[in-house]
Amino acid sequence: MDPKVIRGTSCWLGVDALRSVIRLFVMAAFLGYIMVWIMMPTNTFWLHWLPDIHAKTDSNYFGQQGANLLIYTFPVLLIATLGCLYLHLGKKCVDHDIAENSRWALWKRPVLVKGTLGIVSWIELSFLSMFFVLLVWSISAYLYGMFANITRQSAAKMGVQVWEAKLESVALMLGLVGNICLAFLFFPVTRGSSVLRLIGLTSESSIKYHIWLGHIVMTLFTAHGLCYIIFWAATHQSSEMLTWDEIGISNVAGELTLLSGLAMWATSFPRIRQKIFELFFYTHHLYILFIIFFVLHVGISYSCIMLPGFYLFLIDRYLRFLQSQQRVPLVAARLLPCEAVELNFSKASGLNYTPTSTLFINVPSISKLQWHPFTITSNSNTDPEKVSVVIKSEGSWSSTLYCKLSSPSLIHLEVSIEGPYGPTSTNFLRHDMLVMVSGGSGITPFISIIRELLFRANRMSSKTPRVLLISAFKKSLDVAMLDLLLPVSGTTSDISQLQLQIEVYVTRETEPTRENQKLLRTIWFNFKPNTLDVPVSAILGPNSWLWLGTIMSSSFVIFLLIIGILTRDYIQPIDHNTNMIYSYSARSALNMLFMCLSISMPATAAFLWNKKQATKEMRQIQNTAAPTPTTSPGSWFYNADRELEAFPHQSFVEATKVHYGERPNLRRMISECAGSSVGVLVSGPRKMRQEVAAICSSGLADNLHFESISFNW
């Protein structure tokens, strides 16, 4: 056997063994964390476990906050940090990850297709059921313990009736249970999260979990607030609504928390979110006030319950802010007659991403605040120097962008990006056949998949699945979207090496129109790049997972050092040596300030170091003489010499069949697919996704494995 193969195999085995050890540690920490949530509503936890932990951990450095940091915050940050190491090592075990993911194939089949929850798989339903059981258990355990201590005598001592005492207990219980949901609320929206990647999720696919949790959180917190208002009104304590105690719970801060949450909740319902997206988008920034007033409401010590999820989100949000301040050079743009545009950006050579990854794009000349997510259509193997996205003119922002790019007077377009974000492995390679169903601009995720398969079929000589692409468009003009299956610079790949069949359906026209003969235009931007421009690169460079783990661990250590010194030298002397008790609000404010400082220091240092490396690479790109087209008028030129029928390799055209005036019979086409494992991927309107999900879950065939690709705010 080749010595290189032996070394590679032993290296793989060593890495895999290390990852197995990390998995065990992560699983142990996760089970311990879940056990805390299960035991938290019980008297055993409050009367025995917690006092013992406080007795061993309370010190002059952290006070009572130390126990909560140890119980609630440390396990999650440990999981996230170990997850970063696990994912970094996983770059060498991609094929092994594919095999691992195949074990969960049956659990990923859809079980619920229509309804308020959307498309739900068996594994999602299982976790949702377990989470619901946890909430029911917490509610019943809290009420059992609280009501057991409420008698006529105890109520009389408080100066209230029994029902009023129970109402106050219910109000407290609703707040405590709401904190469980709040603790998990920020995990799905942490785009660069290692925790999500550990369980095979991305932020794009997890948005629905954030929506579910958000509705539950606001339902519980709204009921929590209403119960207290009714209690105060019934017991003639309405003045309590205006109290801001320096010690204990601050009611005014709680009311401001609830008002901020209600504003976000009211604008997040589908009708408002879809029709007035800007209102939803801007209102959702009230989460900053929501968190600040929540911490001031309950105090920093109790806030440690929800701290880990928000802490990881804060790191991710700050890194995204740093990345968004950069400008990336736009290399070329391809304008399609269907008013879609492909933007091609300069890319750092060390940036690798998987198919179906997304980029968030901001064009300051259109809006400095609006960021829009788009699927990357390029492939890091076939396009080593460029990254591209496709944008269809379907709203005011995208229409304005298309008009700008169509203008001959355009010389330079400033663009900022965040990302890319995507899955850690390409699970579709495990199938014998791929059926990709798209509607309209939903074809964009499949462009990157087809380019990846073309690369593997031609360069790696590896076995690739057969591909059936079913694309539905409203007008024949939209068929030009297929022109983007090839990169802007063309391709040297032999398309015949890939078993590709394309079925195109034009639903609202019975024959091609003259407008369909319009040509695709390519605009090359050949101006000298701005010195401040940097190529698209991972925010923390090629070893981003290692850098992220370092930022997580070092920032938390810095935070502990700062609050330890603050507590020992400033807060403890006031609490123990004077008749005063240090204000809970002031303590909470200082903790929030130092938390932000602790995160910003290592994150900024890591960002600047990697930016320095990216700048060096950009200078090398600028010094490399790029071919300048002779037909270029000024700083750009139009290349209008390609039509759909002029693709390289006639086999591509032969693989495409266009049907006019009809819709695809998806049930028949999918059920006829042969193979022991058929991956069915769908990207398009909600009804299309539900139809395909219903086919895969109907039991017609056991070899169908469903996956929905959508990202809809």
Textual characterization of the structure:
- This is ferric-chelate reductase (NADH).
- It comes from Vitis rotundifolia.
- This protein is α/β, with parallel strands linked by helices.
- Helix content is 51%, strand content 12%.
- The strands form four sheets. Strands 14-11-10-9-15-16 form a six-stranded parallel β-sheet, sandwiched between helices.
- Helix 22 links the parallel strand 15 and strand 16.
- The N terminus is likely disordered.
Going by helix content, strand content and strand pairing, the class is: alpha/beta
Strand content: 5-15%
**Biggest β-sheet: strands ordered side by side in the sheet:** 14-11-10-9-15-16
User: Which stretches of 5+ consecutive residues score pLDDT under 50?
Assistant: 1-10, 625-650
Query: Strand count, sense and closure of the main sheet?
Result: 6 strands, parallel
Transmembrane segments: 21-40, 69-90, 111-137, 170-190, 211-235, 247-266, 286-314, 433-454, 545-566, 586-609
GO cellular component, one term: plasma membrane
Membrane topology: Multi-pass membrane protein
EC number: 1.16.1.7
